[in-house]
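Standup notes
- HV: blocked on the assembly model, inputs below
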Amino acid sequence: MIVAMSVITISLSVFMHMEKSAELRKNTFIVLNNADDLLSELVDAETGQRGYLLTDNETFLKPYLAVRDSISSNLGKLRQISLSSAANKHLDALRPLIDAKLAYLARNIELYSSGDIATALANVRGGQDKRLMDSIRSEMKSFVLVEQGALAQHDAQFQGELRILFIFIVIASLLILLFSLSFVYLIYRETDQRLKNLVHLETKHLLDIQEKTNNELQLINTALQISEEKFAVTLSSIGDAVMATDAEGRVTFLNAVAEKLTGWMQAKASGRPSDEIFNIINEETRQPSASPIREVLSHGTAKNLANHTILIARGGGECAIADSCAPILNREGRVFGAVLVFRDVTERKAVEDGLEKTRKELEITKISEDADREYAESIINTVREPLIVLDQDLRVVTASRSFYEVFKVNTKETVGQLIYDLGNKQWNIPKLRELLETILPQKTTFDNYEVEHDFTAIGRRIMLLDARQIQRVLGKERIILLAIEDITERKKAEEATKEAMESKSKFTSMVSHELRSPLTVIMESINLVLEGLVGSVTDEQKDILDTAKSNIDRLGRLINNVLDFQKMEAGKMELDIKEYDINKIVLETSREMNFLAEEKDMSFTVNADDSIPMTKFDKDKIIQVLTNLLSNAVKFTEKGNISITTKNETDVMHVMVEDTGLGIQATDIPKLFQTFEQLGGGLGKKRGGTGLGLAISKEIIQAHKGNIWAESQPGKGSILHFTLPIK
Amino acid sequence: MAKKILVVDDEPDVLKILLLRLNKTGYETIGARDGREALEMARQIIPDLIILDFHMPDMNGDEVARILKEDKDLKHIPILLISATVTSVAQRAEECGADGYIAKPFQPKELISAVKKMLEQSESVNLKKEMDHGSKDSSSR
């Protein structure tokens, strides 16, 4: 494209250049022409003047008059179109000469017309005008020479340009040719590559097919080989003698038994006529019998030989044989060989002996089978669970003693019966049918299948069935073992327990609620008296009432704890989970509990870790835990300090309540969180504990998926820890 | 003028000590033994606070509370529900529209502070209402 564009551009510019040169040439020609015309006009004018002088005919003056009028403009024109300055110099030189010539001509004409003919003629003869004319000619010639030089130059230029154009066209043509050639070459290469690819693909495809075919062939060969091997093994391992021949009755194959009976080895016999190898005579007449092979080959049908035939072996030995012969047919049904199968019937007796032996062996086996059965049955009977064995038609093979005992059936009406028919078709239970007919065929083992059924003899029973399907080693027979557990009693007991638990919890709940009202009344009454609202109280009275009051408080807490704990035991603890700041809650709780500590002249110190984020928990429950831990700490500490520390441990927040109290023996620590467990010989009771606080706390913390534990040194104090997950 | 408190409890002993405690604290008290009597007296005297026991024969505390809260003349009276059922008392109080609750057994301090708080609240609510009402009246004029 670029090449084409540049070719066109350059050609155009060269053409324009050439046009300019041509124009210049044309111009020069015109100049030369005009110069020529000018000169001849001048000559004509002079000749005319002479003619006028000689003839006095004024018509001769015409050329002179024309020149006189036009010469100036013609000279101007010539000067205008002549471009070279050298030429113009000549033209400038010409003008005065021409003017002088014309002036001279005019004077002569005037002299003549005025009658001074002699002077005019003398002037003509004087040769002045000739000299003028020669000067004009010579100037004109110079001018023409200059112009001709310019013309030659322009010609040369034009020629040069033509050459350049030619060379350029040649080069451009060569370039285009080259380009075309390379383009053609590229297309050729592309096509060639494509063709090659196609050929490659096609070849590959063909190779693939060939390889596939090869593989298939190999497979077929392998199969064929295997089949041949199998065939050879079969032939050599069967008890009968086998002999094969080709269509002409020549031996092609002898198996081991045939070799033994005929006395010929396959290698030797191969290719010999079959009659030679299979030499038979009639048992009674001892005359040679007709070979069945010939007959089979000619008729193409199978033939059984009469029994009374004796085969004479190569070594002369004889044996009675029974045989049969069949043709080998090809696909078109043409006979291309025969196969002869024969056996030594003299061995029949030995076989019969063998049979007898086998029978005896079988009897022994049967005895051992019976022993096995007895063994199995004794196992079945030892099992306390009712056990029943079924065959694959779901008929009872055997049942354990306990089965008969539990289900009140006897052996006679059980063994051999269809399971559903047992006990007057009592066992026709839909769920049992489902287990035996639907589930077991898919799963050979199925346990804890619950069936409930109302039996006439023994009443409503709930049973758990374990079923096993066992494939017998021999044959396709399957047997099914069905273990039956009577769980009726157990179920009853479980239900009773559940009911008892429920009624117990109901009872506890009711009692606890009922206790609350009188408790409130007693407490309030004491309070009213103690506060002196109903009259003044003596110090002694006050002391007694205080004792009553603290015990009532304890009773109230106990009731609350019992209720809480019972709810937890029943798994009814509902958590009201929201996001809280544990430090705030610790501070609030310690502040509210402070009166307890103050009673013993102690105080709570809180070390809060501010980096603990807002955490999700049940505020009231955690306050309950904190209250328990703080009141315990106060309870078991006589003097010192109780500190509460919180710590951010990334995944969990950790709260510790540390006291300087009695401490706990290491062995007692695990008991700490158990129900109604109070340590220190009832010290806790003395101090107003319920024995439920820590157990409840543990339940609460565990419900939050946290941990609670204690560490302690007797005499030095204890630390109770709990953690809550931070999410 | 002392605030009037209506106390409703079917158990005479509980009623007695409640009345005594409130009386000694400086409130004017009226007792009722069951729901029907409570409703009757409430309409009659329009108390400043009603303390209701939850468990009562014939008509439970929450039923009484519901009726009170549906009565346009009585619904402004705050109700304090008392129950021995610790767990669900909060939920029950909310369901029947009671303004507060307290669980048995309770400390006198608890009762008195609850009563005080509720009375103050209702007073400020009523005051605000009156003021709103007053400002509305003045603006309409």
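- HV (later): unblocked. Confidence is low (pLDDT under 50) at residues 137-141 of chain B. The beta strands of chain B are 4-8, 28-32, 49-53, 79-83, 100-103.
- Next: hand off to the docking folks.
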